[in-house]
Design goal:
Shape: globular
Number of strands: 7
Order of helices and strands: EEHHEHHHEHEHHEHHEH
Strand order of the largest sheet: 2-1-7-3-6-4-5
CATH topology of one domain: Rossmann fold
Radius of gyration: 24 Å
Helix content: 25-40%
CATH superfamily of one domain: Phosphoglycerate mutase-like
Strand content: 5-15%
CATH class of one domain: Alpha Beta
Number of helices: 11
Distance between the termini: 39 Å
CATH architecture of one domain: 3-Layer(aba) Sandwich
Length: about 325
């Protein structure tokens, strides 16, 4: 049973935890209590290093409050207003960022995250650099800042990239595309001036060619894009990755899992994230098991010799019947 070896899981990372097992379309989700129950039944754990190669910790974060959230709550029709184009964080949103940053530091996540993947919109990048970035950027530092001064009229000082994981922008984890101007991005050229240390190299087009003014992406299309994103995420070598994205994207991506689980588990998985909420999930790719051989493995039979196990010998004996 492969789940005997999930000792890498850390239940102090966040209050919401799920174990995700996926191999292409074969999906399985276990809650933390189920995993703990397994641990109590495990007496021997072997090949731990080998198994870890099939795991990745994904820390999902929804951006903090943006101006579009406030206006949309007052009047949902405001979502189609171009006044909310690429909405930035509100002052309350920045307070949410500060609080989440304190939690990330107190929990030890800030020292463990190896990569930050972020949707290329202002509110997500502001959240990402505010939570996982360095301290205030100072003149004379020989490294570009993650964010320059006063981006989005935030009255925030520049944020340093020193002692921070790398940040990379990925279009696959954007919010629903189309119709709502708040979900339309700026040009990459503009963003590079605003967020100099974020890597935008995976984005092919300077202008936003994905957003359409008259076509809103269907929920099923967002979910399919989410699975493509997970496929891409699995190609990364980093094993502890923060993903800073959006309510709709995270909801529809997570909703693709757990259809064969108890309704209570499915309901917990499919709950919308609040602004500035963090959830940690462990992704298990069962299709990759054994693909990364541990450097500590040893093949045995050196030198070669007979090694028929006694249980196999008993099976062969029962198949052949008693001998005279």
């Amino acid at each position: 049973m492969i789940y005997d070896k999930i000792l890498w899981f850390d239940d102090e990372l966040c209050q919401s935890h799920f174990i995700f097992g996926f191999a292409f379309i074969s999906l399985q989700i276990w809650t933390l209590p189920q995993v703990k129950e397994l641990f109590t039944r495990c007496t021997v754990v072997k090949n731990f290093t080998w198994f870890v190669a099939t795991l990745a910790l994904c820390i999902g974060v929804r951006h903090a409050q943006g101006f579009h959230n406030v206006e949309g709550d007052k009047n949902p029709d405001s979502y189609v207003s171009y006044d909310l184009f690429d909405a930035s964080l509100t002052p309350l949103g920045w307070k949410q960022v500060d609080n989440l940053r304190e939690h990330v530091k107190a929990s030890g996540l800030s020292k463990r995250v190896q990569l930050v993947v972020v949707s290329p919109l202002s509110r997500t990048m502001q959240t990402a650099v505010g939570v996982f970035g360095g301290d205030a950027h100072a003149d004379g530092i020989d490294a570009p800042p993650l964010m320059n001064d006063n981006v989005g009229n935030s009255n925030r000082h520049a944020i340093s990239s020193l002692n921070s994981p790398p940040f990379i922008a990925v279009e696959l984890c954007r919010e629903h595309l189309g119709v709502h101007p708040c979900d339309k991005r700026r040009s990459i050229t503009e963003y590079q001036n605003m967020f100099p240390a974020i890597d935008f190299s995976l984005i092919e087009h300077d202008e936003d060619i994905l957003w359409k003014p008259d076509i809103r992406e269907e929920n099923e299309e967002v979910a399919a894009r989410g699975l493509k994103f997970l496929d891409w995420l699995w190609t990364r070598k980093e094993k502890e990755i923060a993903v800073v994205s959006h309510s709709g994207f995270l909801f529809h991506t997570l909703s693709s899992f757990g259809n064969d689980c108890h309704p209570n588990v499915k309901n917990e998985i499919c709950t919308h994230l609040a602004n500035g909420e963090l959830r940690s999930v462990v992704i298990i790719d069962r299709g990759m098991i054994g693909s990364d051989e541990s450097s500590t493995n040893y093949p045995g039979k050196i030198p070669d010799g007979l090694d028929l196990p006694s249980d196999v010998a008993d099976e062969k004996l029962s198949e052949n019947g008693p001998t005279n």
